[in-house]
Amino acid sequence: MCGIVGYIGTNDAIPFLIQGLSKLEYRGYDSSGVAFNADGKIEVIKKQGRLKVLEDILNSNPEKDIKLGIGHTRWATHGKPSDINAHPHISSSGKIALVHNGIIENYIDLKNQLIQKGTKFISETDTEVAVQLLDSLYNGDMFETIKKAVQMMQGSFAFGIVCADYPETLFAVKKDSPLILGIGENENYIASDIPAVLAKTRKICRLKEKQIAILTANNVNLFDFDGNPAEKAITTVSWSVYAAEKNNYEHFMMKEIIEQPNVISATISPRLKNGNIELDGINFTKEYLENLQKICVVACGSAYHVGCVAKYFIEKLTKKPVEVDLASEFRYRSPIIDKKPLVIIISQSGDTADTLAALREAKFLGARVLSIVNVVGSSIANESDDVLYTWAGPEIAVATTKAYSTQLSLIYLLALYIGKILHTVSDEEYSRFIDNVESLPQKISEILRKENQIQQIANKYYDFEKIFFIGRNIDYAVCMEGSLKLKEISYIHSEAYAAGELKHGTISLIDSETLVIAVATLDEIFDKTLSNIREVRSRGAKVLSITTEDKSEKISQVSDEIIYIPKSYSTTTPSLSVIPLQLLSYHIAKLRGCDIDKPRNLAKSVTVE
Ligand code: F6R
Known about the structure:
The longest helix is centred in the last third of the chain and has 22 residues. The mean pLDDT is 94. The protein has 19 helices and 27 strands. Helix 7 packs antiparallel against helix 14. The radius of gyration is 25 Å and the shape is globular. It is an alpha/beta fold. Helix 12 links the parallel strand 21 and strand 22. The chain starts with a strand and ends in an 18-residue tail after the last helix. It binds fructose -6-phosphate (F6R). Fructose -6-phosphate binds next to helix 9 and helix 16.
């Protein structure tokens, strides 16, 4: 949601703060700011707009000899983007400044209490309440003050805090929002995510729930919210700075689209041993699976769309009923978990607030939780019974591509693994599926080579304002992802529809100014989808079809444009059909002059409910 950085050490803090924030801009980019301790006085510089605005101010009047500072890049939740609402926020006394990621849910109550005591507020944010609360509790001992304040605040908060009386100490707090520590030589860092510190150190400590960190240049100490010392688990990040850079690509999104064959291989290869699937020590017994009444898949956004494919795939291969829920709905619909289902949580970041809340609800109700996560050691990974990591590497573009694809590939492996134990998949089918999954990277590379054709199609249709995606079964599930990709980065209103459903009302919207993108890859129902394409075509819509070459004769009769994808075992086609949709969205957004990696109103990691 927002990006936090902090520095304490023997070098200049400001260059690190700016460089670190530039790696976190994907988390929010409507304003940014820094606070630092200059000769025992806290100074704050913050500005609405992209980080560049702040950077220019700091460069025009460089601050020297700053050894302690915090920085923030914002995605507005409480209060519109403005200089005043930007972080860091400083207390009225000028003693304490703080950056925050998350939402303080009881901020109105706390604010009223503070106002009654005479505190004056200048911003509309919940964050200012946190800093004023700290100030009102401050008795000369910052650690004691933080301990008291965190007991009074409800909601989610990761904080970086500096206090004028502590020119050599950086404080950090984590509750329900991600925060990592970077461990350096004579310097230490805090950040919302690893890329911010990667140019400085690969030694990372991920704060656990409800922890307070006290950092000096040479020391890092952790405590729980009651003040008891806590263990530091320091890990070394294996991926390089290069993985989190744009390199020669114009946009992270394109780099990440192109990376898909490699990251899918990286995700599946270690799990395939001599023709068998081995899932990171996860051990489902036959008895457990036979007694399993249902499987629930819970996620948000694109990860939810993976869940929609998963429903078709897992049901087909395991014969177990699968329910798919949006995480934000799951929690509040009183889900029936009485027979202890397996709950599969899918999340790239592993810190999405709605998904984390759903996970906790599922565990509270007694479910076993298996999560599919990209970020190692994230909250969702930590709190799950079992974890399968997608080895997609850092995903920086706000619109997900490679995380979606690696999540899908793990769903295939998981379903096959369960199907084999339950004997709902024959040995022959199992081997055939595995061959198919292994061939996906090479087939995706083939589709990526069609970029020129896709670019030309984008040239023709980029100014359409109404786009529908239609398909049946798993093709429909892919349509949902295609539609989301298009709208989030190009701002074109588009909708995904089950092809057979359109005629029950929505077809009235179809006219000659509509582009219909039809995904029609499944042999069994191809003719049905073909009829639905005819229905929209006869109402004047332009049609772009995505299918396989063996269907060329029929599809060419009803399409204005066709993109062929390689043939695949039916249920794995989503991994292929999504690729042209990603490329098309990218090129349409580019032609419309959109900010592809940082679309308006969005942020990568949604750590508020
Ligand atoms: C869309 C997109 C979002 C995320 C969603 C869940 O391109 O990236 O819809 O899929 O916010 O995020 P994670 O997977 O981090 O839980």
